[in-house]
């Protein structure tokens, strides 16, 4: 696979995982009435941006993450202090639609006032002395979707009821939890599609696809043959068939099969491959939608358990940090998986999505799980923890995560390129 193809596969794969994760946050934030200022895929400089329904959608240069910037998570915009001269753009009802902070000469229709008092979060009003009538204080109502304009850039105000911090504990918890949840949903959907297209492995005593160069093809066995017994040993599952074949390399075996409602015996001699018998038959696959639907959930649950087992080994010392992979390691693994086919690439993406969901649910500061932990403490205390203290904890957590990322990336570089 070419380097360009690998890069594109990596960007699309990682971008899809981040997109669905942030989409979960975004949908639940919108349903809670939170103003989402930006929905971003990637970090760094903007490559593409457009505005729709109060939100700026951006694709950024570095495809290593993403975010939803919600009102109230960071300090809100510009403080309108007394004495500040601003321009006001009013509608026909004298309601403020735009507040011009600077470069007011570009807005000749703006009404210039010197602020005496302003509130753009709760009561939504602004009062001040007009330029032409300095002795008269006038008060104006501010539209709840009014924008502040600074250096030509418009930023919508966020009344308190549109801010993340003003929402109920349940609404905030669901908004943060939705990101990891959507990663699990994505994995389920991918596994369902794979099950429907490729089929779900079946444990029926039936022969699946026959390889062209195997003993099964040479002896006359066909796909769909139902095996009742092998050398008079009754079989009831696919695993029974595999076990008997593996234990008899080079020994002739008599398969008693059923084909088109007819019974027959066929003799097959398994090839000896590394000490095990092989006849060149794949496991049968079930392509019914019902089986595929169940497969999506069972496969996601299986891999979720496996990842938690690995995390448990990390805690007990059975798994070291050297075995972790960062973006470089994921890139190298993606290249190897992509060479084995599109379906394996989709399966790899589903596993990464589960991993991303689990990692984000861990109670680590700066991750979704860390924020959920603070919400849990808030529920127990009956009041939120001081924002400055929580912010400091998240900052320390973020710094430690960046340090871990550097260590893991260096390990990846040594493992794959040195």
From TrEMBL:
Residues 191-261 form the PDZ domain. It holds the Pfam family Peptidase_M50. The keyword Endoplasmic reticulum does not apply. The chain crosses the membrane at residues 174-197, 391-410. One of its GO terms (molecular function) is metallopeptidase activity. It is an enzyme of class 3 (hydrolase). Keywords: Hydrolase, Membrane, Metal-binding, Metalloprotease, Protease, Transmembrane, Transmembrane helix, Zinc. It comes from the Bacteria. Its cofactor is Zn(2+). InterPro entries: PDZ (IPR001478), PDZ_sf (IPR036034), Pept_M50_Zn (IPR004387), Peptidase_M50 (IPR008915). The keyword Transmembrane applies. It is found in: Membrane. SMART domains: PDZ. It is a multi-pass membrane protein. Signal peptide: none annotated. Its EC number is 3.4.24.-. Belongs to the peptidase M50B family. This is Zinc metalloprotease. It comes from Caldifermentibacillus hisashii.
